[in-house]
C-alpha cells in the first residue's frame, strides 16, 4: 500500500472503532463485494437493535449506507454528503464527525454518556492504535478477519490464520458454531505473516503463548488505550 492507501485503511478502522465504541451492540465484518472488487469493513446491526444497520466502509471506494436513512435524518444540516468520500473524511477537523454523521443517518441513538469499555470495543480500539503506530513503518501491517469473505470471488484461498496459534484454535473448537465464530477473530498481519489473533471477547492469542486478556492489560495501564496498545505491540513483536 502507498501512503494514501495506508491512510484510508487506517481511517476505516478509526471510523469503525469509534462507531463500535459508541454502540457496542453493532457488529463488524470484513467483506469483499463485487466479486472482490471492493475491500470493506462492514458495520451491521445485531438482534438487539430495533432497526437494520448496514454500512460499508469501502477502502477502494467510498463510505456507503445500504440500510437507508432514518426518517428523522436531515442531511442538509451536515457538511458531509453521502456517499462519503475518504477525502471528505480526512478534511474534517472534528475527527468524530463522520462517525456521528453515520450514527445519525442510520438512526442510532446518540449516547448520553460514553459507554463503558467492553472487551469487544477494547479489541477494536487497540486495532486502530496498532495500525496508527505503523503508518510510516517500512513493513506493511494489516488487520484482517480470520473468516475470509470470498463470496462471489473466483478463489478458494483461505489464509488459515489459526494454523500456528494453538490457543485460538482451541477457543474456536470450543464454540458451538465454529464457522460463525471465526468472524469474531481478527488477525494482526505484518508483511503477510500473522503475528497474533485478537478475539472479540477480549483475548489476545499468539503463537506458542498462553492467551492474554486485554482487559487486564487495560486495567494495568490505568485504562489508557495508548499504553494498552503499546503493551500489545510489545507482546506480538517480541522475539520467539
From TrEMBL:
It comes from the Bacteria. This is T3SS peptide-binding chaperone domain-containing protein. Pfam families: TY-Chap2 (PF22553). It comes from Brevibacterium aurantiacum. Residues 11-232 form the T3SS peptide-binding chaperone domain. InterPro entries: T3SS_chaperone_dom.
